[in-house]
Design a protein that fits this description.
Layout (H helix, E strand, L loop, with lengths): L5 E6 L2 E6 H83 L9 H7 L4 H10 L11 E3 L2 E4 L6 E4 L2 E4 L5 E3 L4 E9 L5 E7 L4 E11 L6 E2 L4 E5 L9 E8 L2 E3 L2 H4 L8 H5 L5 H19 L1
Antiparallel strand pairs: 1-2, 3-6, 4-5, 6-13, 7-12, 8-9, 8-11, 9-10, 10-12, 10-13, 13-14
Length: about 300
């Protein structure tokens, strides 16, 4: 035991003696075993990563093939679109020639086929439409004191939808019919707050309403012509001052009267772009049919 360090370990089971050389031997065995396990794990990990790399390579290859196919399809589609656009431009050029001849300017968002139909309108057609559908201001003034849409009711002080516009007018100002029609209602209307209310039923599903009047000059069932004097402005009902509450409805849908105030022969086409809830093409066809029918009756 000379030149060797003896280590004694005592436990409940007894005592054991080790020399330094034995401890080193055990340490080396344990170390070699750990290295072996590490190498085994490394080999397995490398094989797994290699397999994943191969799978990724296959996926990349498939993506490249898909990309090539999509690029080819996109190119073919682009060529087809360019061809269709060329044909459409030729059609638009022909329509534009017709429009130039008859001095017609279409709304920008109307498609080519509708533009072609609208372009067929002549001066008589336009005058018939402006006679049948409300246009212009019923009180002359164009000053809007309360616009169409959501607002705080000045009398009830709560948020509500304003279905018309309020036009500035002194007490007793004259109100004129903006189109031909039949008087549907001409009386005091308490539940709505409109006070003295006049409703005129026009052609093609249009109606106009006039509220807060001081006097109604027509009666229910009476036919009125565009420009006829029908009422006087006032302050009846829920109103905080003299003015005219003016509404335009199409099939009981409230439209913004502002678009119709400036509608006339000079800017006839603008209404088609501003008010999109009206099927103008169908309406125009109805006017043309009426015109043809009247011409046949004259024969």
């Amino acid at each position: 035991m000379r030149n060797k360090l003896l280590i004694t370990i005592t436990t409940l089971k007894g005592s054991k003696q080790y020399t330094i050389s034995q401890l080193i031997k055990r340490f080396l065995i344990t170390f070699i075993l750990m290295i072996f396990i590490f190498l085994a794990i490394s080999v397995v990990t490398i094989k797994y990563l290699k397999s994943e790399v191969e799978n990724q390579s296959k996926t990349i290859k498939k993506l490249k093939e898909t990309k090539f196919f999509l690029e080819k399809s996109n190119k073919d589609l682009k060529n087809k679109i360019e061809y269709k656009e060329k044909i459409l431009n030729q059609i638009n050029d022909k329509i534009a020639d017709i429009e130039d001849i008859i001095n017609f300017t279409p709304p920008k968002d109307v498609d080519s086929f509708k533009r072609l139909e609208l372009a067929k309108l002549d001066l008589i057609d336009k005058k018939l439409i402006l006679r049948a559908i409300p246009n212009g201001s019923p009180v002359g003034t164009m000053v809007v004191t309360s616009p169409f849409g959501w607002r705080i009711n000045p009398m009830l002080h709560k948020k509500e939808f304003h279905r018309g516009i309020d036009l500035r007018a002194k007490f007793g100002s004259k109100v004129y019919a903006p189109a031909d029609g039949v008087v549907e209602f001409a009386n005091y209307h308490k539940s709505s707050g409109y006070g003295n209310l006049l409703i005129i039923d026009h052609n093609f599903g249009f109606k106009t309403l006039y509220g807060h009047l001081s006097k109604i000059l027509v009666k229910r069932g009476e036919f009125v012509k565009k420009g006829d004097l029908v009422a006087l402005t006032g302050n009846s009902g829920l109103s905080n001052g003299p003015h005219l509450h003016y509404e335009i409805r199409y099939l009981n849908i409230a439209l913004n009267p502002k678009y119709f105030l400036n509608w006339n022969l000079k800017n006839y086409d603008k209404i088609f772009k501003k008010e999109k809830r009206v099927d103008w093409l169908s309406l125009i066809e109805a006017v043309k049919w009426q015109k043809k029918y009247i011409e046949k009756l004259k024969e």
